[in-house]
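Hey,

Quick one before I head out. I ran the complex with flavin-adenine dinucleotide overnight. Inputs first:
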Amino acid sequence: MHEQQPAPACDDMADVLIIGGGLSGALLAAQLLRRPGRRRLLVVEPRGELGRGEAYSATENGHTLNGNAARMSVDPDNPDDLTHWLQQQIDAGQWPESAEQGVPVAELFPPRGLFGRYARQRLAEAERVGAKAGSTLEHVCTEVVDLQVHDDRVQAQLQDGRRVQARQAVLATGMFAAARTAQVGENSLNAAAIDPWDVAAMRTIDPQGTVLIIGSGLTMVDTLVSLQLAGHRGPVEVFSRHGLWPHERRQPPPWEDFLEADPSLRSPRQLLRALRRQCRLALAQGIDWQAPLDTVRVHIPRLWSQASDRERRQFVRHVRPWWESHHHRSPPQGAALLERLRQEGRLHIHAASLQRVEPATGAGVGVRLRFRGEAQATRVEGAALVNSTGIEYDWRRVARPLPQALLQRRLIRPGPLALGIDVDPQGAVIDADGAVSTRLFAMGPPLRGLWWESTAVTDVALQAKGLAARLTREPESSP
Ligand SMILES: Cc1cc2nc3c(=O)[nH]c(=O)nc-3n(C[C@H](O)[C@H](O)[C@H](O)COP(=O)(O)OP(=O)(O)OC[C@H]3O[C@@H](n4cnc5c(N)ncnc54)[C@H](O)[C@@H]3O)c2cc1C
């Protein structure tokens, strides 16, 4: 297993410095270790274990992947990799609760914590392969707070005052979960809110008290699971701008790839019209509407990168809420819980936007919300408040040292529509003057503006493979 080490001395040059050791950083390291040649890798990651990051550090079995095993392999060349690994775990008695799902292994939705173990194991195997060629991986357990890019190297300042340097560096800093990220110009939402994944904190809520949740996407589904595990049995009021929530993920049959058949469909409006037509066709044949929808996914990066900024804005404004609730679907267990709570009359999901958090009159919390169609804001009180607004993609709003330092040094600029940062199609970072770096790269969620979908397991697995190939070419060669 990789060594967790004190940071090496500054003159100890690494080949690649990976900033962030979540799933992206771990998969990139694994790809680099498996490539021919001898290289020295440094991964700077404050968490004790590589490969987990925000998503796969989950400790509750109820917080599962939102896709089944057959869709979540970390090996782009072997889609069955996770299914086989899970089968071994189940045979070894490592996940007895899997039987409760009552489906074949490929259709299981594993806990995210277990998936984190899988990612770590695949990294450990790659380390053994790399060690045979003399390659090494060191995990430096802290945070990068600043970065300088020179002609021949990148130098990183660590939180503890030390510095490390490498020939190339990769920003694999992932998602900044809104609930856990201090934000520039922050309203008091996070100060008043409970963490969506903190089951222990939820045990302190009055079990019969009303819980207010801001945001109605997959983080809200996780929150419902956390509340349930914490023994909460009171009302839950959810508020989001459109009042839409994730559909249940089912396993639809294959459907013709209609975008492949008609590549002339380009604008968001055309896409939506064609997709609706396909969904109607499917339903008329008694086929799940999720079948045509699932064929769209592979085309999203192409459609998004071809679109003009105007079309992208149209998509974000008119299609995004719909896309989020239909495409980013809920695992069946979460969907069943949500439905049950609605049926019991305990859960209500409202179309309303948060105006501000206000001091509570009693022990709980107060928020002012504007409900859709109403001119005046209304005050709502509850026993507790949860911030389930998901991810902050605009780095200018992330009050963390590294994003702010990179912006100040003009080493990065916001990506299209201020989603993540600007990079070229190979992941080379573009600075504030438009120069494409040959030393600094990025992968995963920071590439949201370039590809729109750049966060899921399959996205980062593919990017890790492509970027490893790019990094193992000569750094001076043009990207
Ligand atoms: C709660 C949650 C659930 C998810 N569930 C799914 C799912 O079911 N299926 C799916 O396909 N996708 C899911 N995702 C998407 C998920 O983000 C990706 O699958 C993947 O985890 C992204 O990995 P990452 O390493 O890029 O980001 P992250 O997991 O966010 O990891 C980034 C790492 O970088 C580190 N870091 C940040 N800044 C610095 C710094 N300055 N110095 C050093 N280290 C730093 C952080 O500590 C973190 O560990 C989920 C995301 C979240 C947040």
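The first helix runs from residue 23 to 34.

Talk tomorrow,
K.
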